[in-house]
Amino acid sequence: MKVKYPGLLAEKLPSGATRYRVRVEGNKAKRIPLTISPDHPQFVEVYLAARAGVRISPESTPEERAIRGSIGWIAAKHLASLERSVEAGVVSPLTLKKRIGVMKVLTDRYADYASDMPQSKLLELRDEFVATPARADSIIEGIRSMYRWACERQLCDVNPALGIARIDKGKGGAVPWTSDDLLKFRERHPPGTTPHLCLTILMFTACRIGDAIKLGRQHETNLEGVRALRWQPTKRGSAEVTIPILPPLYRATRAVKVLGDTYLLNSKGNAFSTPDSLGNMFRRWCSEADLKGRSAHGIRKAAGHLLAKEGCSQYQIMTIHGHTQAQTSEIYTKGIERWRLARDAMSALEGMDW
């Protein structure tokens, strides 16, 4: 089937070659020459840009190919900036990965729209994902961050995502593991196995899965005669963590038969490449132990709750979890400390002459 391209001019040159030019839509006097023919895989993209008055080459960047001032143009510039930030080590690769997904959702629908899109369009986009409210809110948050970045650089004047309310009420996040959950997992995955080692690392370091894939013997140190682990969490804004290596963790790290740069190795004897790769494997290990709805982050929460029950203060939990804001660790101590305060207060009434 022959495809028609309005405004496309094909001119036969004396040499026998064909020269292609495109009339700019709305300005017939202006014609943009093309460097490729209709059989090129990027011809449609180059042609549409020419119709919009923009001259691009197939080798150009997404930022250059986008219509200047459009949503697609700002999204491309934003992602390019994030990529540079990742290379500089100031932004997590995971943040970039998530933002790429958000930008794809946005540009698949509104790439050629002017950047000052009405808020009603973003509300329509949010409501399109109402069946998955957490994702819907994540998309709007990503778009809000993009516009915030663009406004700071005077690429646009208004952030249409401001004021859009969240629709995900939340369910308290990951489910904390119980003692029975931990026992069930260990019964299915005995010492010496990678699943057992992974569970032990997560439980006795309270680290995130993004740190678990990097921890190894190079992080071991000796402080005041105590064997310890010291590492800088990958999550931006986290404080360095230094904790003693308790006997269960030491035994688990020494029980494995294959050694590598990291404690945790995949089936090929290599370090896990991404947090997602370990996360997917951990969910499989949970399924094998008949544990549904459990995640690696739930172990981190379980560690926080157990520390609080054992009398650890909010600030002690902060040092173990790498938190820099007290309110982040408060979720583990709030209920426990309220009970202790109530118990101590009521004890004052015991001696009353009633």
Question: TL;DR?
Answer:
The chain is mostly helical.
Describe the SSE topology.
Blueprint: E1 8-12, E2 18-24, E3 27-33, H1 43-51, H2 62-65, H3 71-88, H4 93-110, H5 119-128, H6 133-152, H7 179-188, H8 194-205, H9 209-212, E4 220-223, E5 226-231, E6 241-244, H10 247-255, H11 275-288, H12 296-309, H13 314-321, H14 326-347
Antiparallel strand pairs: 1-2, 2-3, 4-5, 5-6
Tags for this model:
354 residues; hpI Integrase, Chain A; elongated; three-stranded antiparallel beta sheet; 6 strands; 14 helices; mainly alpha
Number of strands: 6
CATH C-level name of the largest domain: Mainly Alpha
| Series of secondary-structure elements, N-terminal to C-terminal | EEEHHHHHHHHHEEEHHHHH
N/C terminus separation = 97 Å
CATH topology heading of the largest domain:
hpI Integrase, Chain A
Structural class, please?
Answer: mainly alpha
Q: What is the alpha-carbon Rg in Å?
A: 28 Å
Helix content: 40-55%
Into which percentage range does the β-strand content fall? 5-15%
CATH architecture of the largest domain: Orthogonal Bundle
> What's the number of structural domains?
3
Largest sheet: 3 strands, antiparallel
Query: Number of DSSP helices?
Result: 14
Q: What features would you describe in this structure?
A:
This protein has 354 residues and is mainly alpha-helical. The chain folds into 3 domains: 19-60, no CATH class; 71-152; 179-342, Intergrase catalytic core (hpI Integrase, Chain A, Orthogonal Bundle), CATH 1.10.443. Helices cover 49% and strands 9% of the residues. The protein contains 14 helices and 6 strands. Strands 1-2-3 form a 3-stranded antiparallel beta sheet, covered by helices on one side. Helix 4 (93-110) crosses helix 6 (133-152), helix 5 (119-128) runs antiparallel to helix 6 (133-152) and helix 13 (314-321) runs antiparallel to helix 14 (326-347). The termini are far apart.
